[in-house]
Amino acid sequence: MGAIARRTALRAAVLGAGSAALAGCGSALDPRGDAGGDVALTVATNAVSGGKNADEADWIEKWVIPRFVARQKAKGADVRVAFLPSGVDDEQYKTKLALDLKAQAGPDIMGLDGIWVGEFAQARYIAPLREVAGDGMADWEGWRQISPKVRSLARFEDRLYGIPAGTDARVLYFHKPLFRKAGLPTDWRPASWWDVLDAARELKRLEGVTPLQINAGTAMGEATTMQGVLPLLAGAGGWVSKGDRWYGDTPQLRAVLGFYRDVYGSGLGDPRLQQEAKGRDKSFERFAEGKLGILAEGDYFWRDVLAPETGTAAMKRRDNDVGYALFPARAPGEGLGGRDHVSLSGGAVHVLNPHTRHPRAAFALLTALHSAAALRARLGDSAMITERDDVNDVVLDQDPMLRFCAEAALPVTAYRPPLAAYTAVSLALQEATAQVVAGKSPGQAARAYRKELSEVLGGSDHVIG
Amino acid sequence: MSAATPRRPADGRDPVRALLRGVGAYLLVALVLAFFALPMLWLASAPFDRRPGITASLPDFTLANFARLWDNPNAVNSLASSLVLAVGSAVLVVALSALAAYALSRVHIRGRDGLLYALLLLSSIVTGTAAMVPIFLLAAELDLVDSYLGVILVLTGGLLPAAIFILKDFMDTTPRSYEESARVFGASPLRVLRDVVVPVVRPGLATVGVWTVAQVWGNFLIPFLLLRSPDKSPAAVVMYTFYTEGGQPDLALISTFSLLYSLPVVLMFLFVSRRYGFRLHGGIKA
Amino acid sequence: MAATTSSAETATRTGEQSPDGHGGEPERDAAGLGRRRAAAFVAPALVLIALFLVLPAVWTLYLGATDYRLTGIPAIDPAFVGLDNVTKALGDDDFLHSLWLTLLFVLGSAVIGQAGLGFALAWWMRERTGWLKTTLEALVMLAWILPSSVVAFLWIAFLDRDGGTLNTLLHTPGAAWLLDHPMLSIIVYNIWRGSAFSMMLYSAALGNVPASHLETARLAGASGWQQLRDVVFPRIRGHVLTNLLLISLWTFNDFTPFLITAGGPNGATETLPVHIYKTALGSGELGYGAALSFLMLLINLVVAVVYLRLLGQKNKARRSGKRKTAARGSGGPTDQDAAPAAPHAEAPAAKEETA
To answer: Residue A200 belongs to a domain with what CATH number?
Structure first.
């Protein structure tokens, strides 16, 4: 199996010259590099046919790879490509990739969550794309179609490490029939946090309805940070980090925690749902059943969870019954950068293994994964915000919700800082919200967050405020 | 359950009280029976439900979930992989631990007990998450990544101390006279072990074998870390793939697969308990 | 195995009929192994253990003295920090809380729960046959051998607050067991999960207690509790300790609660293995996680030493018990009646002689 092209230090020492020759063969400068011979490539993403992200897995295996192999053959190159599926939690997938890369093995092309780029780069598991693929990489036609904002997903310390694979946005979903029942407008456009709480108070009068879920606590994991704390923080005009330093106990954080207290302290949200291991699934089910009024989620909720036919909590009348609105700033103009509304985005990035033996072939395959034709094939008649503007122009017409995300949310969106410490900081933020939900005051929770921050960062040097 | 034992001898002579006691004892047994049976209901209902939820209920009957699972490219295959790993590890663990336990039981080696305890304790580190980097790098160095053998060896190494520990106690309690007779007739020690000792400790070997299979059958981390080819993934790993992008479980597939995934170990248990019986022997000898 | 069945049965029968007391000397080299051959028998297991257990374990201990991480700068250039990780852990409330939960979990679910229920089951089953016993035994064993990922789903479904089986039965809709009684839930879960091992061990042990002795005690007017204390317990003390040692160790290292509660709500069920998993795999802090493993090893060691202390007393008791057995005339005909009628009764009968 060609996935593991191992060249550990010990091996290199034992095999000496032989292994050096292999290494030479793989360098971009080697004229024999990719010409003819036996080129075997592997691609890995956290997707598996018949399981997690099955569409993506099927698309790579059945669409991208055969066409790529055929095209290379037409050029006279014999290339074999294997797809290495996974279908596990992101943390487990990340661990496996990191271990492979540490052993200087692993797939030639791999999908990473954009947020991992920094820590993988710092560990030298991955290298800037230009170093791996050579200067020729700049010639790819697709770069012009990827906006700088989306490209920032694949950047760390001003260097580009791969090609982003689409992006997403977070919004507030609301259940229109419930809104109608509560006498609220079905074209709801909240302009401030106050508006959101107001609507929730109206919904609270309905029997058996949880008015509002803004994720909190550690059970929700990153969903708390992505769908809760960060959009609120941006709405309060604050942020988590500046450069490589992190904000501690700021007035904006206190405002965010105060909002949590308003939601969970007065019965507008169901705090139990936030503590259950399967709480997020349950909140999806409740929304689909019309027992939850407002839910903060990513566009994935619309595409995968509520999808009328295939969703895990399918809503037959999704297009009619589900409304969506941007996260409002705390008050108009108070959002990050003086904005009225905010959103938060993430996305995957495809990178090359710096130890690939066939960098040029690997880069060719990488771009094949991001050609306009490939992306259109990937989507079929479904829609997603892809990395390419030219594709978005076409596919987003099929789905007004995603068009809304691309046109209204992306311009005001923010990306998480791609720093290695982010995971620990995110956990500390989740704990702070958990404390507020459990009844502590926002001030106490913010002070505890400040303390936790200096602990996980190893001192106060990297803490602001 | 102590209600089942007469508290006073006088009880036996009072028929009303004896009856009450009997009823009480059976009520208690029924309660325990329910305690063990009830959580398993979900496994009996959800796979046959058209829309399985996280609750056990009378299913809206369908076999469609099985058809879906059958179409899944990895599901059925993975059971075969699990079988290879489980059988391989069980054979190694049973054979090696029987040999070692026998020798340790019959010949005194200084520091033997201390060594056994130390290994038992160390095995708790290796089965934990913290050891994953050393284990992975070790396997990579030995070229055991993406091979069944690597997984089998790592798992066997982790399970052996407890297996030896259980079996040694077992061997300590078997009578020696037959071994001596066999030896008088000129049988080699290996033969004595095979023909005299093994038959006597057979239920113990069966127990250790079943224990090993159950441990390997359920292990996720080691095969996940060490295997790469999709067709080698065992069921424990494939079970994790029936989730969506955002981590929502696909309960139709998960419940159905759970049933298929459980069946082999259940069948093995029934077979082994019929054929060999389960008996454990224990009691630490100084 | 089939080929040896006949000799096995011969051995079995002779074993039952000639209780000559030879089994009582663990050290006797009956088969004439000799040290060298004994070493050869042990070697394959030891080699595997050395390579795939001791080496990674020691390596892990070493990692515990560094600030090694899965990713980021410390991944390529880990610094040696000595005992910093250990002192950090000992001063960390999360760790101490997690340790406390683990001890609670071990004490509640293993030492009291599994050992207690396992013994009760073995006691109830000891003289019984029939479908009820077979069914109960099979269910208990099933709970033990089902894969943990399956078992986790079973318990989530069982305890679910909206439509869980338990709430339906108790007519307590909406009772959130996993949120309101998280530790109790996973303790009960683990009793369900692991009682089989104790049941098997005690079943074997109880086979060593001659029915005649119980009968004598009963006729002498001993209460059920007195019979247990004076007749049964001294004879199964060794089994009790083996059992406690193994189930404590296993429960200590049990990761399955994570699959049910993910350590929540708010860390209320974050036992040490879960804490280590979150540290090592979740946050990628492998050095710190390894140090936590080391601390866990030490605590396991303490637990084992405590049990072995109790074992020391047992040996004395056992030796005196043996004398008593011998005095009573080893292996009267009633002793054989004590052994279950199953064909595998050989070993319990033999064991009786050693006790």
So the answer is: 3.40.190.10
